[in-house]
Amino acid sequence: MEISRLTAFFFCLLVTPAVAGSATWNLNPTSGEWNTAANWTPATVPSGLNDIATFAVSNTTSVSPSDRVQVRGISFVAGASAFTITIIAQRSFTFIGGGITNDSGVIQNFVTEVVPSEVGSVAFTGNATAGNMVTFTNNSTVNGHDGGDGNDLTLTVVK
Fold first, then answer.
1. Deepest in the core among 18, 31, 64, 157, taking most CB within 10 A?
2. How far apart are CA 147 and CA 17, in angstroms?
């Protein structure tokens, strides 16, 4: 009887659908597409309110989401490659509460793309911060608000 319960438990684990979660960008991802689970370890797409996307060394450093992304934060670990994350037109990238941590020692780049009548956007909400050694090429919008601590978001925008 006990073996049957254990077998049923493991079977339930196997058929549980994958959900978004924190993950690390792969050394050799299949593409530069943020929303492809195979590009992350574990194979899930960071796009949830509590998710952290971690970037280290990678052979693919140009990354773009094909859909809206909301994450608690992004962490560029010590020694990480220099990345460019491009938010394409009609997409948004929102940091909720955490923001960007850059311990890589190199500048990390975020680019918002614009095509006629369509823009990409980056937003910082709650107490989210833009981090250090991070450049934003603002071809559309980068927004932030007072996280309740009295400090407004300050960005250096390169256009």
1. 64
2. 34
